[in-house]
């Protein structure tokens, strides 16, 4: 650490977002990079459900401010002695690690193996909307569901994306479409259904109604893959019914209820979890795959294949605006991403 101070937004107590103390403006020491860490000057951040889940009320107090935030776009200020991928002045974007202080601060330390080169076609705010959702979507499709990046391999195959208009759904829809899959999205409101179609969904069904009758009405008996981005237990029976024999289901949403895995047995269905923090939390040997994936996303953005999902930008990055962003996300009705820029 240096004796230099930096601005940040943090919390000492876990409180409802209406409480002004739920997120507060603080000053903390500016950190120094060691090992493979980059010190990044933060230009923009975005907010994800993980932020309000971590911040949600609980009977605990922090002795030092806890800093949240797992989507950053900025510029490398300094590099640790073991860095080989980036140098000072590089523009970067990344989601960071849940086990370390988050990016809601003027400067931020991150392992270079989970950082990508920022898309050149986007400004910092647009780029900050992408990392966490892109890594989650990419890992879900390629690593967990085992979907090929080669369009020819996916001819005639279908994927059902539950919650297609949300942050992860917005990217997963575009990636799945680009991979050559027929994409069926779920949405429940005209604006979210319209957004999903704009991003490439071939068909949109309502996730508050039984899936199979809606699929059949659209010409599908079942689907080869399901990506569940909303309430795993609520959709469990519908997913078990809609999935093809030997199909695969991936979910990113933890459940408080026991799931009846036997529903998947007769069809020999695979069920798999995705958490984009797994690699950084456990320092897995393949951590660098996130660096590669973010660079791939940046290339697809610059080629015009993937568009950013920024929907609302707030300025500056401070506690008042972050409380506003958390409150918006907690409604569960945001379409696209809420981004904050500039300290």
TrEMBL record:
Keywords from the named record: Metal-binding, Oxidoreductase, Zinc
InterPro entries in UniProt: ADH-like_N, ADH_Zn_typ-1, ER, GroES-like_sf, Lipid_raft_assoc_Zn_ADH, NAD(P)-bd_dom_sf, Quin_OxRdtase/zeta-crystal_CS
Signal peptide positions (record): none
Residue ranges occupied by any Enoyl reductase (ER) domain in the UniProt entry: 18-340
Pfam families membership: ADH_N, ADH_zinc_N_2
SUPFAM superfamilies linked to this entry: GroES-like (SSF50129), NAD(P)-binding Rossmann-fold domains (SSF51735)
GO molecular function ontology, one term from the record: oxidoreductase activity
Transmembrane feature ranges: none
Keyword Zinc in record: yes
PROSITE patterns: QOR_ZETA_CRYSTAL (PS01162)
NCBIfam families with a match to the protein in the record: adh_fam_1
Family as reported in the entry's similarity comment: Belongs to the zinc-containing alcohol dehydrogenase family. Quinone oxidoreductase subfamily.
Protein's recorded name: Zinc-type alcohol dehydrogenase-like protein
Organism classification: Bacteria, Bacillati, Bacillota, Bacilli, Bacillales
């Amino acid at each position: 650490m240096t004796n230099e101070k930096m601005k940040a937004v943090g919390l000492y107590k876990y409180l409802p977002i209406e409480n002004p103390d739920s997120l507060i403006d603080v000053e903390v020491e500016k950190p120094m990079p060691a090992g493979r860490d980059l010190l990044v000057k933060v230009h923009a951040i975005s907010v994800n459900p993980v932020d309000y889940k971590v911040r949600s009320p609980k009977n605990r107090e922090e002795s030092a401010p806890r800093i949240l935030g797992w989507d950053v776009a900025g510029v490398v200020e300094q590099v640790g002695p073991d860095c080989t991928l980036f140098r000072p002045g590089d523009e970067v974007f990344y989601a960071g690690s849940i086990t370390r202080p988050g990016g809601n601060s003027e400067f931020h330390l991150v392992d270079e193996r989970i950082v990508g080169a920022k898309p050149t076609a986007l400004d910092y705010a647009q780029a900050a909307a992408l990392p966490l959702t892109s890594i989650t979507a990419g890992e879900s499709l390629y690593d967990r569901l085992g979907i090929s990046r080669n369009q020819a391999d996916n001819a005639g195959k279908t994927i059902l994306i539950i919650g297609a208009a949300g942050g992860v759904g917005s990217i997963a829809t575009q990636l799945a479409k680009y991979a050559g899959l027929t994409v069926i999205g779920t949405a429940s409101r005209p604006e979210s259904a319209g957004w999903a179609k704009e991003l490439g969904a071939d068909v949109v069904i309502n996730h508050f109604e039984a899936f199979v009758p809606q699929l059949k009405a659209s010409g599908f008996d079942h689907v080869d893959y399901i990506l569940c981005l909303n309430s795993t237990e609520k959709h469990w029976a519908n997913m078990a019914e809609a999935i093809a024999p030997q199909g695969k289901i991936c979910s990113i949403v933890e459940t408080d209820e026991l799931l009846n895995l036997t529903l998947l047995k007769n069809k020999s269905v695979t069920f798999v979890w995705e958490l984009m923090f797994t690699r950084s939390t456990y320092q897995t040997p393949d951590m660098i795959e996130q660096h590669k994936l973010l660079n791939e996303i940046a290339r697809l953005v610059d080629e015009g294949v993937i568009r950013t999902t920024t929907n609302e930008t707030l300025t500056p990055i401070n506690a008042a605006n972050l409380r506003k962003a958390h409150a918006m996300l907690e409604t569960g009705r945001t379409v696209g991403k809420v981004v904050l820029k500039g300290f």
